[in-house]
Design goal:
- By secondary structure, the chain is an alpha+beta fold.
- It has five domains: 97 residues, Alpha-Beta Complex (DNA Primase, Chain A), CATH 3.90.580.10; 141 residues, DNA primase, catalytic core, N-terminal domain (DNA primase DNAg catalytic core, N-terminal domain), CATH 3.90.980; 129 residues, Dna Topoisomerase Vi A Subunit, Chain: A, domain 2, CATH 3.40.1360; 63 residues, no CATH class; 145 residues, no CATH class.
- The protein has 28 helices and 17 strands.
- The strands form four sheets. Strands 12-14-13-15-16-17 form a six-stranded mixed β-sheet, sandwiched between helices.
- Strand 4 and strand 5 form a beta hairpin.
- Bound molecules: zinc ion.
């Protein structure tokens, strides 16, 4: 049964579209109407109009239009009944569940379930942290106390604790009526065996302090779990895997709380960690966001821009070490694409915002934000500490690095000002430096146009299970490590694999032992996107795997890559205008590749037989 027309009218009657949309991003009042940059297409000047009298929106750029329900459908990518439901919730109007559910698709239902599971689990973790008498709960409370996170703050952010014994949590989930499939879909559990689901699930988060993650609308969609015991063996933070409800690339920690302040101030401070953000927010600095330990993506930036608005700014607040500087360069590159003003602040050595505010009070941090300089000046300052401007070679490096940054500034007047600034600083003529900027710009655009389909360095790494098994065993299993060191010629044997770069880099420098401390140190030495990826693999429960499994995984990967080559050659030999000579060459190549393939398959069976 569809939702009755009367109910829909009632919902629309109780919803003010201006207030609704301002909950997502700011609108500017001009005359009778309200304006913003359109959320449905990319633009730099506002052509998205919202009318209070008509209770509707219209975009002059892409012709998107509709009422409050239409807006929620478009913006949240949900169907009509879900949008009605959301607005009904907001307005406090009841819709009978069965009327609503009939029209929703299976995927939407699962997404709803995922959010429900994460939401109820967050309350359970929270309760567990505050009330449990277990040793780990006491240790977690002690840890938070030391970090100056009191009970009120823990309540404000629904901070929780995942118990050490994962079964306690699994049993609770079962008591709530969640089945294995739903729990795995929620990202809180994984299957013990990817091929045999009947072997059950395990809890991904064990003995970790849990920070719930929200979309900008406020739904609980995932978690970030933090280790807190001194013998911390694993990655500091682990996030839920991506699910129907959670995509790392467009979620900021805290945005659901900070969006109003960001919109009001037209300014967002980007800091690195969750505790930094909480500390800022709790001390009245509310316009803060934190990405989830991953590099900023275009989606992050577009999301943020909706709240900052056209003339807004971003203040980068990264660690003062070289990793922090690199991260700020990457962030700058992504953010400058949408043309907002970017400043960066210099934190004192060995201080993050959390420590700074705890030690010196919020005023000190507010001062640093106020005096944060335009990005190129921050860069000059940082590089001046690393390079010697009296040395000609250093001076060239200095000029090159800055020319890249400045070439990304869209506004010509600002760009020219920066060029003059830097030229004076390095002691070369403005014209000379301008040439470098133009060169950097051209290099950049030619790279972009030729490599749009290439995966970016910071893209989420996605690999097949065999690669995961190889990596996991190479780190945690002594036999496998010995085999890799002694019997694998990395350049020869792995060359054909799709993940050659990744694997060869890892295998060339494996940690010295299987002790968790060594593995942890090894992982921490990697770039953050690689570290996150490795941690996710270490967390996976590939139990009972040993050297034979690593051997099999490698052979399966070789088979796959060979098969792809054979397929490619076959396609190639069928293309138009190919000469007979070429066909012959390809055929003989395919022939030898087939032989190689058979050998691999035989090797695979041999391993299996010797195992039985
Ligand atoms: Zn539009």
């Amino acid at each position: 049964m569809p939702i009755p027309e009367e109910t829909i009218q009632q919902i629309l009657g109780s919803t003010d579209i201006i207030e609704l949309i301002e909950g997502y991003f700011p609108l500017q009042k001009k005359g009778q109407d309200y304006w913003a940059c359109c959320p449905f297409h990319s633009e730099k000047t506002p052509s998205f109009k919202v009318s209070a009298s008509r209770q509707g929106y219209y975009c002059f750029g892409c012709q998107a239009k509709g009422n409050a329900i239409g807006f929620v459908m478009e913006y949240e990518s949900i169907d009509f009944p879900s949008a009605v439901r959301r607005l009904a919730d907001r307005a406090g109007i009841a819709i009978k569940e069965d009327e609503y559910d009939k029209k929703t698709t299976k995927e939407n239902l699962l997404k709803k379930k995922i959010i429900h599971i994460n939401q109820t689990a967050s309350l359970w973790f929270h309760e567990n942290l505050l009330k449990s008498n277990s040793a780990e709960a006491r240790a977690a409370r002690e840890y938070l106390k030391e970090r100056k996170i009191d009970i009120q703050i823990a309540k404000n952010w629904t901070i929780g604790l995942a118990p050490e014994n994962g079964n306690i949590f699994i049993n609770w989930c079962k008591s709530q009526g969640f089945n294995n499939e739903q729990m795995v879909a929620s990202g809180l559990m994984s299957y013990r065996d990817q091929e045999e689901f009947s072997k059950g699930v395990y809890s991904r988060f064990r003995n970790r302090i849990m920070f719930p993650l929200h979309n900008d609308y406020g739904d609980t969609i995932a978690f970030s779990g933090r280790v807190f015991t001194p013998q911390n063996r694993l990655a500091k933070y682990v996030n839920s895997p991506e699910t129907l409800a959670f995509k790392k690339s467009n979620v900021f920690f805290g945005l659901n709380k900070s969006k109003r302040s960001i919109a009001k101030k037209e300014s967002a401070i980007i800091c690195e960690g969750q505790l930094d953000l909480i500390r800022c927010f709790e001390n009245g600095i509310e316009n803060v966001v934190a990405p989830l330990g991953t590099a900023l993506t275009e989606k992050h930036v577009n999301l943020l821009k909706r709240f900052i608005g056209q003339n807004g700014e971003v203040v980068l607040c990264f660690d003062s070490d070289s990793a922090g500087y690199k991260a700020s360069l990457r962030a700058y590159e992504e953010i400058s694409k949408v043309g907002v003003f970017i400043r960066a602040l210099q934190l004192p050595d060995n201080h993050d915002p959390d420590l700074l505010i705890t030690n010196y009070g919020p005023e000190k941090f507010i001062d640093l934000v106020k005096s944060a300089k335009a990005f190129h000046e921050y860069q000059i300052e940082t590089l001046s500490g690393q390079l010697n401007l009296n040395n000609p070679r250093d001076r060239i490096q200095f000029a090159n690095e800055l020319s890249i940054t400045i070439s990304q500034v869209n506004d010509p007047i600002a760009r020219d000002g920066y060029i003059n600034d830097v030229a004076i600083r390095i002691g070369i003529s403005a014209d000379e430096f301008r040439k470098r900027v133009v060169n950097s710009f051209n290099k950049k655009t030619s790279q972009v146009s030729t490599s749009t389909n290439e995966p970016k360095e910071h893209d989420i790494i996605n690999v097949e299970q065999d690669v995961e098994i190889l990596i996991k065993l190479s780190l945690t299993d002594a036999d496998t490590k010995k085999w890799i060191r002694n019997s694998i010629n990395i350049n020869d044997e792995l060359k054909s694999l799709k993940n050659f770069d990744l694997l060869s880099e890892l295998f060339k420098s494996l940690p010295s032992s299987e002790e968790p401390e060594d593995i942890n140190a090894f992982i921490s030495s990697k770039d953050s996107h690689i570290a996150t990826f490795l941690n996710d693999i270490i967390m996976k429960d590939y139990t009972h795997l040993s050297l034979v499994d690593a051997k099999k995984s490698l052979i399966r990967l070789k088979i796959k890559s060979l098969q792809e080559k054979i397929d490619l050659n076959k396609t190639f030999s069928r293309r138009e205008g190919i000469s007979n000579e070429e066909i012959l060459t390809i055929t003989s190549k395919v022939e030898s590749q087939r032989k190689e393939l058979l050998d691999f398959k035989k090797a695979l069976t041999n391993i299996d037989e010797s195992r039985d």
